[in-house]
Specification:
single chain, alpha/beta, Na+/H+ antiporter like fold, Rossmann fold, Alpha-Beta Plaits, six-stranded parallel sheet, five-stranded antiparallel sheet, 65% helix, 8% strand, elongated
Amino acid sequence: MDHALLQDMEILFGLAVATVILFRRLMFPSIIGFLVAGILAGPHALALIKNTHQVEQMAEIGVVLLLFTIGIEFSLKELMRIKHLVLLGGGLQVGGTILVTALAGIAFSFSLPQSIFFGFLVALSSTAILMKLLMDAGEMDAPHGKMAMGILIFQDLCVVPLMLFVPFLAGAGDGLNGIMLVIAKAAGVVLVAHYTARFLVPWIFGQVVKSRSRELFLLTILFIGFGTAWITAQVGLSLALGAFIAGLAISESEYSHQALGDIMPFRDAFMSLFFISVGMLLDPAIVVKYPLLIASLVITILLIKTVITTGAAMSLGIPMRIALITGLSLAQIGEFSFVLCQSGLKAGIFTPDLYQIFLAASVATMGLTPLCLKIAAPVADRVVGFLPNALTRGKGVLARREHQMTISDHVIIVGYGLNGRNLARVLKHFKIDHAVIETNPFTVKTERKKGVPIIFGDGSGSEILTHANIDRARIIVIAISDAASSRRIAAQARRMNPRIHVIVRTRYILEMEPLYKLGVNEVIPEEFETSIEILSRVLRKYLLSHDEIERCVSEVRGDSYEMFRTMSRRHSHAVGISGFLTGAELATFRVGPASPLVGHSLRDGILRDRSGATLLMIKRGNDVIPNPDPVWEIRENDLVLILGTPEQLAAAASLFEHAA
């Protein structure tokens, strides 16, 4: 038995583990580690691998699996939900980048087919790198994260048609007739896949699931994926197209999530081989031979992609700050560009030297992605601060100039995601005036038709806050996922209205300190609140009583939030009432019909004796009685304001039917 392939795999994976660990410590993406491992093991460096052709064949399996999983993950419903960002934003970015890059190629005396092919390569960004970095930073739900996701979805959808056009750019097709034939074949395969997805695939999976064999389920997934890819290859289309169509067929079935979970480990393993194989093709000597050319190409790619992407986002009405951060985050070359690159090399569009130069520049742009994300916000802030507000606030065809509202003593909600929507819905129910600020023009347009008092714009701008009557507002709630933007908005709100109560939702406890330094009154960390919810659900499963659970939760909240308040007071410039209530809290309760307090006066002392809390105010109907006399009798449906420690409030809660 020939153990050469096993030896090569062991060398590659061992080298990859070492380089990825090193690069992760240096805060570089894993993909860069795989590429460097390939460079070191390749024939141009240490020449550790004997049979590079076998590695390339296994890498092709990685590409097939990648497109297969993208097809499974692809959701027509999700596409329709963000169709404007995907179709308009992605279309403008891809089309604009191809056009500008092609014109630049022609200016440097390259042929038209070569120049268009360069545009194909530059237009695509790295989904794998960017999504990982955004997830690590907790910015997937941030405005620039959503915008980048929309564009990346369109780029992923473009991969297959771009690959279909590569042979025609190389002159291997039959002109327009050949293009139409390929499109007709692709349409036929998609049509067959659609009906297969509706009828055959569910039936096959239904039979397999009855066997209750996970191994059989996995084999069925691989059979459908590779089988469809093989069929498309037999009719003259690419393996990648077949894999994507197979993924689409499975995505329509109820078994798509299980299929995706089972196939992901295989995809990740084979994709690492793909990036390693790309690294093996790169000759490090090319960097020594053309250092200035490669450096110039890297800078040019970063500038073209940043400018085009920023312009595409701004044309949709997105404020310049968000558009510029999106542009810098998508400035790298993507993994699918390597797939196209190899197709171009085989088709003769690329010369070996051009191929090497492009590989070197691509790896450099990928390596610079963490730096681009790090400097994106400061660069955007500086650019926006330098330019007039009329140019940066966002004024596309879907946005319009905002007019100042006439409300006062209201709540301003910044961000109309899940938290913002829920808060706005409750405020509307209780007839509390509020205004919403949102940066997505499509959301603004849709919600405005529903009667939501919503303003388009970036909440960190003084003009937008002025439109929302910040000087007459009582509370501002910042409910966005961008920590840097939250700090900017909080600082601006505090400057424009020193009396306003600022509440900020943030993801992590570590983000609280900088917000308190800016004068934020309350910070709600999702990390902590999630732990509280998990705690209460675990205790409920062990059948602890509601009172015991509430008491435990109150103790945890009391200890933790006392630490948070200490943090707040340390950065507070004024004592305020909270400074005199250290360790105490205020809470409101509604008196239920079964409450033991109903019919008793304050003089009876039931509340004080059983909980230790103090009643400060009673609201009965429209009447508010502050500091009520001991003779006041508590009635059903009274709303009472209670002062006490967290433990005392937990004990008081058991005396009422429910908390308000």
